[in-house]
Amino acid sequence: MTPVVGLLTPPLDLRPDDFEVAEVFEVPLTFLLDPANHQSNCVRYEGRERRYYAMPYRQYYIWGATAGMLMNFYGFLTT
Predict the structure, then answer these.
(1) Contact 35, 42 (CB under 8 A)
(2) Which of 11, 22, 50, 55 has its Cα between 20 and 30 A from that of 64?
(3) Per-residue pLDDT tens for 13-33?
């Protein structure tokens, strides 16, 4: 995966791959940059503790690799 950040002007003609993408939605940057919306969670899997980031937004649960990339982006913008 290679995250790409850019500025886009609507309307957009997005064509996500149905096999890879279930849904496309927008999240305000102000939401993503608010530490109150950042979660660090832990789950036990196969006897090991696994940690992951999550950012619940409305009916969406942004987690795993996507939330990790967003946390890296947050760190880049705030340091």
Answers:
(1) no
(2) 11
(3) 989 999 988 899 999 999 999
Q: Which helix (H) or strand (E) holds 67?
A: helix 64-78
Q: Which two tokens stand for residue 55?
A: 């950012």
Q: Which two tokens stand for residue 69?
A: 């990339």
Q: HSE on the CB side for 43, CA within 13 Å?
A: 8
d(CA 55, CA 68): 10
Tens digit of each residue's pLDDT (9 = 90 or more) over 33-68: 999 999 999 999 999 999 999 999 999 999 999 999
Domain boundaries of the chain, sorted by first residue: 29-78
> How many residues belong to the chain?
79
Based on the number of CB atoms within 10 Å of its own CB, is 53 exposed (0-12), middle (13-18) or buried (19 or more)? buried
